[in-house]
Design goal:
elongated, 3 strands, 238 residues, 10 helices, 2 domains, GntR_C, mainly alpha, transcription regulation, Arc Repressor Mutant, subunit A, DNA binding
C-alpha cells in the first residue's frame, strides 16, 4: 500500500483544502468592510449601480467575495438587488424617514429601558459597565474607518438594554432596523459622538440605580436629542 502523503490528513482531506476556508472567510470579510466603507463614506454614491466585475477589478479580488459582500450589504439595506440590473446602493434617509425611525425607537426603547432597570441583575449591570467603558472618547475623524468602532458600540449598548428588558420580539425588531448604521451614514462629527457618550453615561447610571422612571426619562432624553442632532445636520447639508 502506498504511504499517505505528508500533506494529507487521516480523513483524506488535503492540508491546503483545510486552510482554504479560513482564508476565504477572511477575504470575504475584508471585501465586505471595504465596500461598506465606500458606501458609508459616499465614495459609492446613493443609488449608484455596483457592478460585480468592476468592483472585483477595483479591489483586486475575484467576483466571488464581492458577490458575498453585496449579499451581506443587502441584508443591512445598504444595497438592493434589482431584477436584470444587479446591485445598487440604497438612498439616504430623508427628513421624514429620520423622524419615523426615531418615533419607532422611542416606542420600543423608552419602555424597554424602564423594564430593564426593574429587572437588572448584578451580572447584567457589569455588562452595561463593560460596554460603557469599551469606548472612552468619540473619534474626531469623519471617515467610517475611524468611527466604525464607535457605531458598533452605540448599537451594542442599545441592543444590550433591550436584551436585558427581555422582550425578544422588540430586540429582533431593533436589530432589523439597522438604525445606527443608516443614521451614521448621513453624517458624523466628533461633537455628535461626544454628546452621545455623555448621554450614554447618564442612561447607564439610571439603569444601575434600578429606577424604571429615571431609566425611561434618560432614554427618552437621549433619543430625542440624538434625533434633533441628526435633523440639524441633515438640514445643514441640505
Amino acid at each position: 500500500m502506498m504511504a499517505r502523503s505528508s500533506m494529507e490528513y487521516s480523513d483524506g482531506m488535503a492540508k491546503a483544502d483545510i486552510l482554504q476556508a479560513p482564508r476565504r472567510e477572511i477575504l470575504s470579510d475584508n471585501v465586505y468592510l471595504q465596500l461598506k466603507s465606500l458606501i458609508m463614506n459616499g465614495q459609492v454614491r446613493p443609488g449608484e449601480r455596483m457592478n460585480i466585475e468592476d468592483l472585483s477589478r477595483r479591489l483586486d479580488v475575484s467576483p466571488t467575495p464581492v458577490r458575498e459582500a453585496l449579499a451581506r450589504l443587502e441584508s443591512e439595506e445598504l444595497a438592493i438587488k434589482l431584477p436584470l440590473r444587479g446591485y445598487t446602493t440604497t438612498n439616504l434617509l430623508d427628513a421624514g424617514q429620520i423622524v419615523d425611525l426615531y418615533d419607532l425607537r422611542l416606542l420600543l426603547e423608552v419602555p424597554s429601558a424602564g423594564r430593564a432597570a426593574g429587572r437588572l441583575t448584578d451580572a447584567q449591570a457589569n455588562l452595561l459597565k463593560e460596554e460603557l467603558s469599551s469606548v472612552s472618547e468619540a473619534p474626531e475623524e469623519t471617515q467610517y474607518e475611524s468611527y466604525r468602532a464607535f457605531v458598533d458600540h452605540d448599537a451594542r449598548l442599545h441592543q444590550l438594554i433591550l436584551t436585558i428588558a427581555g422582550n425578544e420580539m422588540v430586540t429582533r425588531a431593533f436589530i432589523r432596523l439597522h438604525g445606527h448604521l443608516h443614521l451614521y451614514r448621513l453624517a458624523y462629527d466628533g461633537r455628535f459622538g461626544e454628546h452621545s457618550l455623555t448621554e450614554h453615561e447618564h442612561l447607564v447610571e439610571a439603569l444601575l440605580s434600578r429606577d424604571p422612571v429615571a431609566a425611561e426619562d434618560a432614554m427618552r432624553t437621549h433619543l430625542t436629542r440624538a434625533r434633533d442632532r441628526v435633523l440639524a445636520g441633515f438640514e445643514k447639508q441640505e
